[in-house]
Specification:
alpha/beta, Metallo-beta-lactamase, Chain A, 30% strand
């Protein structure tokens, strides 16, 4: 009995510590319209993004749970039923947890994320991700939806198949690749990356490629957004 009480107490303490940690570290974008046809939806500690294409809505990630995702979208006059595509930056629950809000959507993810997303590889100890239906994206093949083009930018490290999505070469959705400080990229939280060194290497490579500096908007999951007039510099490791 004492062991059970100790485990429960430890679990509550761990959760309280985690929530305090994320409250200090994370600054997700508020639910709002952030550009013409582009919206941020915040679900607790994470934001996902919705784009109005000429062929339905496109979501980049889905938030933590279906109710919060749907509620946030409806507050902006967006219908979750109109989401026809969801592009997951990775398969963690705070990014894939809202998928059930979009019953008409095709789910897309980077091919290297599939083993983690389907539970064949554990996220941490006994914790496993679970995405049931999806389409794999190969990094050499952009996806076209009507007149819009979504290019995958591999950004492995946070998870084995984490990635960014470049929309029409002007907006980039980076998931958990990075946070922002004064509008500039910095590495994501070390304790939450499956391979922090790999994540930093991915970030530095993307910064050096010039992709970030060429985009009008950099949209992160936990660190808000940066616009083109905010300079993007390489982060310290």
């Amino acid at each position: 009995m004492d062991l059970f009480k100790g485990l429960v107490s430890g679990a509550f303490l761990g959760m309280a510590t985690f929530l305090a940690f994320t409250a200090v570290l994370f600054r997700p974008a508020a639910t709002s319209k952030i550009a013409d046809r582009l919206y941020a939806i915040r679900t607790l500690m994470v934001s996902f993004y919705v784009y109005e294409s000429g062929y339905g809505l496109i979501a980049f990630d889905s938030g933590m749970n279906p109710a919060a995702a749907a509620r946030g979208m409806k507050s902006l006059g967006l219908d979750p039923q109109q989401v026809l595509h969801v592009f997951l930056t990775h398969s963690d629950y705070d990014h894939a947890g809202g998928l059930a809000a979009f019953p008409n959507a095709e789910v897309h993810m980077y091919e290297k994320e599939v083993a983690l997303a389907t539970g064949k590889v554990a996220r941490r100890l006994f914790m496993k991700n679970s995405v049931k239906k999806y389409f794999q994206i190969h990094n050499s093949k952009p996806v076209t939806v009507g007149n819009d083009t979504i290019e995958i930018v591999p950004a492995v490290g946070h998870t084995p198949g984490s990635c960014c999505y470049l929309l029409n070469k002007k907006w980039i959705f980076v998931g958990d690749l990075m946070l922002l400080k004064d509008g500039k990229p910095r590495p994501f939280a070390r304790l939450m990356d499956m391979s922090h060194s790999q994540s930093v290497e991915s970030l530095n490579g993307i910064v050096e490629s010039g992709i970030l500096s060429s985009c009008d908007i950099i949209a992160t999951a936990h660190g808000g957004i940066a616009t083109k007039n905010e300079e993007s510099k390489a982060p310290a490791a």
